[in-house]
């Protein structure tokens, strides 16, 4: 996408963190943002933030659960109907669960997959026909470096983000083969200092406050830096966008070491996650 000016940009999870920063940055670049979030108050606050920096911006603000397939389709139709086109879609909404597999509640695992995986599939399928009609359509799906490596106590999250990677990378090749002109980007953030850790669901033995404190301490990137990296990647038509130095380190460690990276992942998880895991003794 050469320029965001006058481009219609739909962003999910726009009420907080990376989604809010993307929405504000897109508005500053002249885009017409269509913003959605399950938290209506939060997404209206994003709209107010945009109004402060870009008074008179043309906006569409929608309270939306991306896990609801029919609602996502209705939103896509509404965005296209209101603005007459859709050029950029960022399937950004996401949630977390921190719990060892044995203790994770079924409801929490399903909730996470419904938002992180199905939400991305819903958004991609609903908007694809509209993006194909744009002369510069671009789809961005939010994965994570935790979609590349497994992290203890984050199995559902890692699975959902791996699924987003696989789905998005297959779709990118489909649209190339069909010569539809739509571009597709997978985003792989490392740690970003957002409200994300505050909203994760945990098993009873996880200290959620300690988890939030640790996450904010180790996050290497701000949401604004993440938004800048993502939109730069869209402009340069990058297949994958890494966000933050830690994202490159984790990706390259995985490529070079394969499963040899697991002791590091375990060491970091044992040190950082507030779980009653003892430090590892060497394997016999
Ligand atoms: N923060 C990080 O360290 C990090 C790292 C890697 C990937 N990510 C991914 O980046 C994306 C954005 O995360 P963030 O850090 O900005 O988190 P955040 O919690 O600040 O923002 C997420 C937003 O998504 C919204 N949301 C949650 N469930 C929803 C639903 N069902 N329908 C619509 N909206 C919903 C929330 O209300 C919130 O406004 C997520 O997909 C997350 O998995 C974040």
Q: How would you spell out the order of helices and strands?
A: EHEHEHEEHEHEEHHEHH
Number of domains: 1
How does CATH name the architecture?
Answer: 3-Layer(aba) Sandwich
Radius of gyration: 19 Å
Total of helices: 9
Count of extended strands: 9
- Let me know the average pLDDT: 94
Task: State the CATH class.
Answer: Alpha Beta
Major sheet characteristics: 7 strands, parallel
Name the bound molecules: nicotinamide-adenine-dinucleotide
Tell me what the structure shows.
- It comes from Streptodolium elevatio.
- Residues 7-195 form the Ketoreductase domain.
- This is SDR family NAD(P)-dependent oxidoreductase.
- The chain is of the alpha/beta class and 284 residues long.
- It has a single domain (8-272), classed as Rossmann fold (3-Layer(aba) Sandwich), CATH 3.40.50.720.
- It is built from nine helices and nine strands.
- Helix 1 (17-28) links the parallel strand 1 and strand 2 (32-37).
- Helix 1 runs parallel beside helix 2 (40-53), helix 3 (69-83) runs parallel beside helix 4 and helix 4 (106-133) packs parallel to helix 5.
- The longest helix is centred in the middle third of the chain and has 28 residues, at 106-133.
- It starts with 7 loop residues before the first strand and ends in a 12-residue tail after the last helix.
- The mean pLDDT is 94.
- Bound molecules: nicotinamide-adenine-dinucleotide.
- Nicotinamide-adenine-dinucleotide is lined by residues 12-13, 15-19, 37-39, 42, 64-67, 92-95, 115, 142, 144, 189, 191-192, 194-196, 199, 219, 223.
